[in-house]
Amino acid sequence: MAQKKAGGSTRNGRDSKSKRLGVKKFGGEIVLAGNIIVRQNGNKFHAGENVGCAKDYTLFALKNGKIKFETKGKKKKKFIKLI
Question: Fewer CB in a 10 Å sphere around the end CB: N or C, the chain?
């Protein structure tokens, strides 16, 4: 008789789908009202003038305009506003 044990099964082989986060429109670009500017987890970027923040922290344009990224304050918070 063959003296070989059965091989165990692996517990790997799963992966989650990517979230497609990140900046979608960059500084200086013209955007229309409703365009998504940034998809993010938490407030890496904060909403400035004419920019809205959804419940999943997505930043979007409230009006047509040009995007401007800026940092403010002692903590160097990053804000996005429309000019």
Answer: N
